[in-house]
Design brief:
This protein has about 475 residues and is mostly helical. About 75% of the residues lie in helices and about 0% in strands. The chain contains 22 helices and two strands. The protein has helices spanning about 10-20, 20-40, 45-50, 60-80, 85-110, 115-125, 130-140, 140-170, 185-205, 210-225, 225-245, 255-260, 260-265, 270-275, 280-300, 300-310, 315-325, 330-340, 345-360, 370-400, 410-435, 440-465; strands at about 175, 180. Strands 1-2 form a two-stranded antiparallel ribbon. The longest helix has 29 residues, at about 370-400. Keywords: Membrane, Transmembrane, Transmembrane helix. Pfam families: MFS_1 (PF07690). It is found in: Membrane. InterPro entries: MFS, MFS_Domain-Containing_Protein, MFS_trans_sf.
Length: about 475
C-alpha cells in the first residue's frame, strides 16, 4: 500500500499541472542558451587574444578550458542548492557570469592573462546547467517533459551555433575613453549586457515552485504532531524486527533492496553514488566522456589548426563552427523521428561510436599536404555522430541507472554533467600541452588520445552490450 517515491500518482500530476509556470521554464532555457553562447563565443578569437597578451596561441586551450574547470565544482553546489531553491541559484549564476565577462573584456587593456583566466573561471562558477536540468525533471508536468527536454537540447545546440556566429560579426575596433572594443573584448562586453538583461527578466518573471513551501509545511506539521507517537511505535515494534533482520542478514544479501526506505534513499556523497553504478552505467559514462572529449578537441583547436593549415580568417572559422552547431537540430529530428523507430538504442549507440572513430581517424594529417575537404568532412562526421551518440547515450543512461540516483544532490544528472565537464577540461589541457610540440604536430598529438579513448569505449560497449536495454 506504500507508493514508492519514483512512482508518480495522478494527484501529483494534477499538482504539477497547477504549479507549472511556463515563464520560469523559459528562463531556464534562456539561461542554458546564453551559457552555451558564452562558452563558444570566444573560440574563434581565443588564440588571437592569448597572442595579444604575450602568450602562445595554444594557450587558448587554457582560456577555453578554465571555464570547464570551474564548472566541475559549481555543478556540485548548484545541484545541492537546487534542493532548496531554483530562483536564488539562477540569480547567482547571472551575477557571476556578468562579473566574469567584464573581467574577460578588461583583460585586454590591463594586458593581463591572469585577469583573462580569472574572468573565465568566474563564468564557470556561474554554470547553472545542473539547475536547468533539474528544473525540467522536477517542475515540469510529465506530459510535456519530453518537449521541455527537447527544448533544453535545442537551446544548447542553438547556443553552440550562435556563439561562434556572433563572434564572426564582431570584427571591428574602437575605443571609448581608455576602454578598447575589438574582436577580442567585444564578446565579453556583449555577454555581460546579455546577463544583465537576463537578471532583470529573472527578477521580474521567475516564480519559485510551490513544492518547496509545501514540503516545509508538511515537515513542520509532521514534527509537531507525529513525533512522539512514531517514537513510541518504533520503540515497541521496530526493535524485535530489527533484531530478527540482523540474524537473517547473512542469509539474505539483498536485505536492503527489500526495504522500501533503503531502496529509495538518495546517495549522500560522490563515493556513495559511485557504488550505485553498475558496469553498464560506467560504460555509458565512459562513452559520454569520450564524445565530449572528441567534440571539445575539434571545437577548441579549430581556430589554431585552420589558421596554420588553411590560413582561415576569424570570420571563416566562425562560419565553420556555426554550421557545425546548426547540424544538431536536423540530425536530432531525423534520429528522434525515424532512426529510433527502426533500430534499438544500443544498435544506434554502437554504429555512432564506430562513425565517430572513422571521423577521428580520417582527421589525422598524413603526408606533406592537408586539404580543406579532408578536415571539413572528417569534422562533420565526428561532430554529427557525436551528437547522435550523446542523445542515445543519455537515453540509455536514464534506463540503466539506479532510481536512487534520480534524487538528491548526487544524482545521475550531476554525474553525467561532471563526466562531460571533466572531458572538456582534459581536452583543453591536452591542446595546451600538445602546443609545446609545435603547431605542426598539434593536430595529430590531440587526435591520438581521442582515438584511444574511442577504441576503449567501443570495446567496453561490446562487453556490456547485452545489458543495454
Amino acid at each position: 500500500m506504500i507508493i514508492p517515491e519514483d512512482v508518480q500518482t495522478s494527484s501529483e500530476d494534477l499538482v504539477d499541472d497547477q504549479s507549472y509556470h511556463f515563464m520560469s521554464l523559459m528562463l531556464n532555457l534562456v539561461n542554458t542558451f546564453l551559457y552555451m553562447v558564452n562558452t563558444y563565443i570566444i573560440v574563434p578569437t581565443a588564440d588571437d587574444y592569448s597572442v595579444s597578451l604575450g602568450a602562445a596561441a595554444t594557450v587558448c586551450g587554457v582560456i577555453i578550458g578554465s571555464m570547464a574547470v570551474a564548472q566541475v565544482f559549481s555543478s556540485v553546489y548548484f545541484s545541492a542548492w537546487s534542493n532548496r531553491s531554483y530562483f536564488r541559484p539562477l540569480v547567482f549564476s547571472s551575477i557571476m557570469l556578468f562579473s566574469g565577462n567584464v573581467l574577460y573584456a578588461l583583460a585586454y587593456d590591463l594586458n593581463s592573462l591572469t585577469v583573462l583566466i580569472l574572468g573565465r573561471l568566474l563564468c564557470g562558477l556561474g554554470s547553472a546547467r545542473a539547475v536547468n536540468r533539474r528544473y525540467i525533471s522536477d517542475c515540469v508536468p510529465l506530459k510535456i517533459r519530453l518537449k521541455a527536454s527537447a527544448g533544453f537540447v535545442s537551446a544548447s545546440a542553438l547556443g553552440m551555433a550562435c556563439g561562434p556566429a556572433l563572434a564572426g560579426l564582431l570584427q571591428t575596433e574602437f575605443k571609448i575613453y581608455a576602454v578598447t572594443f575589438n574582436q577580442n573584448t567585444l564578446p565579453g562586453w556583449i555577454m555581460s549586457l546579455a546577463w544583465v538583461g537576463n537578471l532583470i527578466w529573472l527578477w521580474i518573471s521567475f516564480k519559485e515552485p510551490d513544492h518547496f513551501a509545501k514540503e516545509n509545511a508538511v515537515n513542520t506539521q509532521s514534527s509537531d504532531s507525529g513525533h512522539g507517537r512514531n517514537d513510541n511505535l518504533e520503540g515497541g515494534l521496530a526493535q524485535p524486527l530489527l533484531t530478527e533482520a540482523k540474524e537473517r542478514q547473512g542469509e539474505n544479501a539483498d536485505n536492503n533492496e527489500n526495504d522500501p526506505k533503503e531502496s529509495h534513499k538518495a546517495a549522500t556523497s560522490i563515493a556513495a553514488a559511485y557504488r550505485l553504478l553498475t558496469p553498464s552505467v560506467k560504460v555509458q559514462l565512459l562513452i559520454y566522456f569520450m564524445l565530449k572529449f572528441a567534440m571539445e578537441i575539434l571545437l577548441s583547436e579549430s581556430s589554431v589548426v585552420t589558421t596554420f593549415y588553411f590560413n582561415w580568417s576569424t570570420s571563416t572559422v566562425a562560419i565553420f563552427l556555426a554550421v557545425l552547431g546548426l547540424t544538431v537540430l536536423p540530425v536530432n529530428v531525423i534520429v528522434g523521428s525515424y532512426i529510433t523507430n527502426l533500430f534499438q538504442d544500443r544498435q544506434i549507440l554502437v554504429a555512432s561510436e564506430i562513425m565517430v572513430l572513422i571521423g577521428i581517424a580520417s582527421s589525422f594529417h598524413f603526408g606533406s599536404s592537408y586539404c580543406v575537404a579532408q578536415y571539413v568532412v572528417s569534422a562533420l562526421i565526428t561532430f554529427v555522430f557525436a551528437e547522435v551518440l550523446e542523445g542515445v547515450n543519455l537515453s540509455l543512461l536514464s534506463r540503466v541507472m539506479s532510481s536512487r540516483l534520480s534524487r538528491g544532490t548526487y544524482n545521475g544528472g550531476l554525474l553525467s554533467t561532471e563526466a562531460g565537464t571533466l572531458a572538456r577540461v582534459a581536452a583543453d589541457m591536452t591542446i595546451t600541452t600538445a602546443g609545446y610540440l609545435g603547431q605542426s604536430q598539434l593536430l595529430n598529438a590531440t587526435l591520438l588520445p581521442s582515438l584511444v579513448i574511442c577504441v576503449a569505449s567501443i570495446a567496453a560497449t561490446f562487453g556490456t552490450y547485452n545489458t543495454l536495454y
